[in-house]
Amino acid sequence: MDKSPPKHLLETIYQQLLPRLQIQSVNPRNPIQVSYLSQPWRLLGKGNYAAVVYHPDYPECVVKIYAPGRSGFEEEVEVYRRLGSHPAFSECLYAKDSFLILKRLYGTTLYDCMQYGLAIPRQVIRDIDEALDYARRCSLYPHDVHGRNVMMHQGRGLVVDISDFLHLGACSKWNDLKKAYYWLYLPVLCPLRLPVPYSALDIIRKSYRLATSFKTSCCQLLLWWNNLDS
């Protein structure tokens, strides 16, 4: 890595954070569970693979720790190596023993913007589009880009989670989110500035996942039928 994290931060991770941390992945389709996190470490977020924490003495860095049994650590390190430095992405400062130290990105996820009724300007969408194009030029394949994996900070767009950018399969999540943004959010929700309750957002998220799974199953069935008929 081009940059190095503070030496004392590394010592604190190995001596205080990792020996006491208790995380587990119960269901690979749901966020991992964090049972214990020693003070003064604070939980910043968690996904299906890993937890993201930070130390208040080092607010410009975050530590992403993969849950035991969850794969993807080596792939994420490679993605950050290819991305290098770009204003819409974080940077990896250290990677070893199933955890990464990353430059912290500040902002509000688009998912939370909807929940709080915050306006999302068009520039945010343009920035994320440009960042994903940049990733493709780095021989990456933007995957799993959705409302919880992108953020807004001071009117600009950021991409938070790049862990699946080596996946070759097509992913329509970002394009689907953009359609909802231009067709529903801008003409209807944005002028009203009404917060969308978390319960409603969760229903939309689960319904989208179900619809996507159904669509995939139908495509697989049609492919099987065509092969059977040929």
UniProtKB/TrEMBL annotation:
InterPro entries: Kinase-like_dom_sf, Meiotic_Drive_Suppr_Kinase
PANTHER family with a match to the protein in the record: SERINE/THREONINE-PROTEIN KINASE YRZF-RELATED, SERINE_THREONINE-PROTEIN KINASE YRZF-RELATED
Designated name of the protein: Serine/threonine protein kinase
Organism field: Nostoc commune NIES-4072
